């Protein structure tokens, strides 16, 4: 059975979640897609590294599509540069992270299938990062948040 078209809408979020210098803006949440997909934009300024630890997720794939700049995604120890018009699917269980090694800001579109995480995960991470006052985030708290939302921090 399909959803009635009267419940459909254009759904970019008005909320931008700041993770230090990074920004996340959900375009589609799992709630709006019957749990099938969550899609968000991720903006990463030049010369920025991911503050959170490398991680994996056992319950969903994450597909990255480059919009602007280049992000280097390290997946199971292999580096992949994802630029505009390029895509990378990170399989379940693969340990991964990203960095912007370039001099240009980067923006990617991330699709989570099925929609196992949403804005609340990033809100909680943002709180821990804000509490760190520019220093490294509390790794224990970050690990707790990650595990609660289905991510496994790398050893």
Describe what you observe in this structure.
With 155 residues, this protein is mainly beta. It has 2 helices and 12 strands. It has a 6-stranded antiparallel sheet, with helices on one face. The longest helix is centred in the C-terminal third of the chain and has 13 residues, at 119-131. The chain is globular, with a radius of gyration of 15 Å. The relative contact order is 0.22.
Proportion in β-strands: 35-45%
Q: Residue-averaged pLDDT, rounded?
A: 91
Could you tell me the radius of gyration in angstroms?
15 Å
Tell me the major beta sheet: 6 strands, antiparallel
Assembly annotation: single chain
Structural class: mainly beta
- The count of strands amounts to 12
Poorly predicted spans: none
Largest sheet, spatial ordering of strands: 1-2-3-11-6-9
Q: What characteristic shape results from the CA principal axes?
A: globular
Helix content: 10-25%
- Terminal CA distance: 43 Å
List the helices and strands in order.
EEEEEEEEEEEHHE
Number of helices: 2
Summarize the structure.
By secondary structure, the protein is mainly β. It has helices at residues 119-131, 139-148; strands spanning 17-19, 22-28, 38-44, 48-49, 55-57, 61-68, 71-75, 78-82, 87-90, 96-100, 106-113, 151-153. A 6-stranded antiparallel sheet has the order 1-2-3-11-6-9, covered by helices on one side. Strands 4-10-7-8 form a 4-stranded antiparallel sheet, with no helix packed on it. A two-stranded antiparallel sheet has the order 5-12.
